[in-house]
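Here is one chain, start to finish.
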Amino acid sequence: MRSQSSARSYVRLAMGCTARNLRSGVPHTWFILIPSPPGGCMTTTKTESLSTVPAAPTGTGSRGTRVLGAVALLFLVIAVAYGLLISPPDAQLGNTIRIIYMHVPTVMAAYLAFLITAVSSGMYLWKRTEFWDLLGSSAAEIGVLFFAVTIVDGALWGKVTWGVFWRWEPRLTTSAVLLIMYIGYLAVRAIPADPKTRATRCAIIGLVAVVNIPIVHKAVDWWRGLHQGKTVLGTIDPEMGGTQLFAMYSALVAGILVCVWLLIHRFRAGFLAERASDLGLDQALEERRLESSPAQGADS
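Its structure:
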């Protein structure tokens, strides 16, 4: 009974071990209990477990993006509450100041996205990897979105304060040039071309376009125009205070968080689109190969 029990235990031990350690720990007298493959030797072919292979992403959301979205929504609610309801009208501008609570965050979010595009463009020219190309294009799309909103709410501000929606003054003119440059960046990406050639062209445009950001930002200091000077950002003593300043910074944080949240989702969507395109190409090539195989067999 003991020998039979020992035999069964060694069989279980052998079947539970990996191929590399299959014979180790098993007495020589029990080798007969382990059937050998044809050829009389045990193979140690290394196989990769499916559990160790990272699964491809199937969506753009994750726990991190949900947390980020919740925090961004919280700051957005605070900004709306203080910007529209709690903060008082300005002594000179009245309720027009509430447009600034949207104008400043959108332009700063656009600047951030454009800077990410520039950094990604430089990294692509150095590393030549798809990651940096996709990150740069995703950031450019988000930046164009936020900067277009900036132009619109700036026009609303101009209508109230200047009586017209648009004036070709330094800040507005340089802003229009900046927006056109990044729209051109996206237009170049839409032109059919070799992916590497297209990415190189866009990277060069991304590095050139970012030079216009400090020009736009300093236009009110370098040239005389209708646009007002700095009131909060870049000043030691902001003209705002109290609930107005709190509303401004709450909106600024909300704008940055929303920008990052959108960028992550856009990047992942682009990644999934690229993988789907590659998979579709592989399937088309495989179908073409299968179609040609019977024809070759018939000819032979």
